[in-house]
Design a protein that fits this description.
Elements lengths: L4 H8 L5 H12 L1 H6 L2 H8 L3 H10 L5 H10 L1 H5 L13 H21 L3 H12 L4 E4 L3 H13 L6 E2 L4 H10 L5 E5 L6 H12 L3 E6 L12 E4 L10 H23 L1 H19 L1
Pfam family, one: HTH_6
GO molecular function: carbohydrate derivative binding; DNA binding; DNA-binding transcription factor activity; isomerase activity
Keywords: DNA-binding, Isomerase, Transcription, Transcription regulation
């Protein structure tokens, strides 16, 4: 498997059954023990049948336990280096609290970067480049990321659109065609409003890019290209909030690649935008 196993487990975790989550937790907490143990011993310690552990490895995309174990052994150095960031404690100083937030953000970015695939980046940017229009969709906290993306891509040579109002988003979606591209942002990938819009544009033949933290979510299944953002949760900040920095970085990457691919037109567009903005600053 090209993706680190612990990140693959994290991206699927919320779709696991309680029993599968228990197996996942055990693997994440005891990677070396799992990579050197027998399926019978591991299953016995977890209080489950051998077949249950075997089936879990199949769920992850492996041919079985032996295939999973070989991959785990290859990645053991990375896995044993994993540390779960200690939650912010009430006795921590302000500096320590801030440092823990930064540590969490850095882990989020590092983990997400490991899941990036060149073919996905190429495909997504090609879809955007060949589109008549690019629209950004997101609700709630994801709408903030969509607005940032819209603000950024306004500088690109591709016409873009976005609205902060859900009903207007629905109206915009109804007008998209197979010549357009839609980028959806949703941490859970389960937002009913976002899925409703995605289903509508998909039916119209619109190309769909999805940025989410849940690889098996309903929204992810609608994407022509899917980017997974991995995040660490700390006290007073949910996983959804933590994932924003990774989502923003994914969109930043698409923007930079697009601009370099369309360098001449991009420079012309940026020049026009800068001239207008500079006049307001004089």
């Amino acid at each position: 498997m090209s993706s680190p196993i612990h990140l693959q487990i994290k991206s699927l975790y919320k779709d696991f059954s309680p029993k599968e989550q228990a197996i996942a937790d055990y693997i994440l907490e005891n990677p070396s023990k799992v990579s050197h143990g027998s399926i019978s011993d591991l299953a016995s310690e977890l209080g489950i049948a051998d077949s249950t552990f075997f089936q879990f490895t199949k769920t992850l995309g492996f041919n079985g336990f032996k295939d999973f174990k070989m991959a785990l052994l290859k990645q053991e150095n990375d896995l044993t280096a994993i540390t779960v960031h200690e939650n912010v404690q009430k006795n921590d100083s302000e500096l320590v609290m801030a440092q823990k937030v930064f540590d969490s953000n850095m882990t989020t970015l590092t983990d997400t970067r490991k899941l990036l695939k060149e073919e996905d980046l190429k495909k997504a940017v090609t879809m955007i480049s060949e589109s008549r229009r690019l629209y950004f969709f997101g609700v709630g906290g994801s709408e903030i990321v969509a607005t940032d993306a819209y603000h950024k891509f306004l500088r690109s040579p591709i016409p873009v659109g976005h609205s902060t109002d859900y009903h207007i988003q629905l109206m915009e979606a109804s007008l998209l065609t197979e010549e357009d591209c839609a980028l959806f942002i949703s941490h859970s990938g389960k937002s009913k409003e976002t899925i409703h819009i995605a289903e509508a544009v998909k039916k119209a033949g619109t190309k769909v890019i999805v940025v989410t933290s849940q690889a098996n979510s309903p929204l992810a299944k609608l994407g022509d290209v899917v980017f997974i953002s991995i995040s660490e949760e700390i006290e007073f900040r949910s996983e959804a909030l933590a994932s924003r920095i990774a989502q923003l970085s994914i969109i930043d990457s698409l923007y930079v690649i697009l601009m370099f691919r369309n360098r001449n037109n991009a420079q012309d567009t940026i020049s026009k935008v800068r001239k207008v903005i500079l006049k307001q600053k004089e």
